[in-house]
Amino acid sequence: xxxxxxxxxxxxxxxxxxxxxxxxxxxxxxxxxxxxxxxxxxxxxxxxxxxxxxxxxxxxxxxxxxxxxxxxxxxxxxxxxxxxxxxxxxxxxxxxxxxxxxxxxxxxxxxxxxxxxxxxxxxxxxxxxxxxxxxxxxxxxxxxxxxxxxxxxxxxxxxxxxxxxxxxxxxxxxxxxxxxxxxxxxxxxxxxxxxxxxxxxxxxxxxxxxxxxxxxxxxxxxxxxxxxxxxxxxxxxxxxxxxxxxxxxxxxxxxxxxxxxxxxxxxxxxxxxxxxxxxxxxxxxxxxxxxxxxxxxxxxxxxxxxxxxxxxxxxxxxxxxxxxxx
Length: 326
What we know:
The chain has one domain (5-304): 4-Layer Sandwich (Nitrilase/N-carbamoyl-D-aminoacid amidohydrolase), CATH 3.60.110.10. The chain has 326 residues and is α/β, with parallel strands linked by helices. A six-stranded mixed β-sheet has the order 5-4-3-2-1-11. A five-stranded mixed β-sheet has the order 6-7-8-9-10, with helices on one face. A hairpin with a 5-residue loop joins strand 4 (108-116) and strand 5 (122-127). The N and C termini lie far apart (67 Å). It has helices at 20-36, 55-58, 65-74, 81-93, 168-175, 193-210, 223-229, 233-236, 273-281; strands at 5-12, 41-43, 96-105, 108-116, 122-127, 150-152, 155-161, 181-186, 213-218, 246-248, 264-271. The protein contains nine helices and eleven strands. This is Aliphatic nitrilase. Belongs to the carbon-nitrogen hydrolase superfamily. Nitrilase family. Residues 6-272 form the CN hydrolase domain.
């Protein structure tokens, strides 16, 4: 049963660039470490398993074939042994886990966010609705069915990945579902200091506008990994900094010192009473809204590539009866 205070953890660690097995070991170890520190809600970076496709940011398309195939081979199928391992860790430690993965669905990859409830059930699998710039060479698009807030042991949880936070209607779709804790995920070790600053602004603004807590995790690359990804020192600069692992209150305040360099886990206690305190003044989907002037149309249907028409009612027509008059 949820209490008035939830302990949250945002994890900033490096993946294993050799594949999902090593990264999964890091995930399970981090869940255990955060749970040992009392965490009830744990967020990992964007597409952390097996790793974010940094290669797509520094290699031209003609050179991406081999690393793209490597990523497809190491990507996660849902469900799989990897998802079952995380589900079991969540159940055993009684924690809610938000994990970013590269999801393989037959011949396509997707940027997926998985929310595991504290009983081990997969409460949500959603896909990034629009991959950003270089990412469009790697991932397919998600759909509106994933823009969903789910009930968990710690409260109502929503999630977006990286620049989805620059889509105000995507954020508003979660806000209308009254999310209480928002999981943000970014790759980290990308672009430079300006990316770090932009993430902080975006996370604090969403917390204020939504009146919810934001738990945001960004990834990290070691110097050895950066050198492995590209030998050119100029392009290596594009894979440094850009980290802002943080936990923000509904009043827009940091609840712990954010992590912008190196590996670690940011932990903070969420006083859930602050949600009502903020929304008493400004509830952007309640008393502060003007739905007769401005509202959101949200298509929640999945977008399959194959459709079967519904069976026709009644028996097949008798061909001997002929056709009706024109």
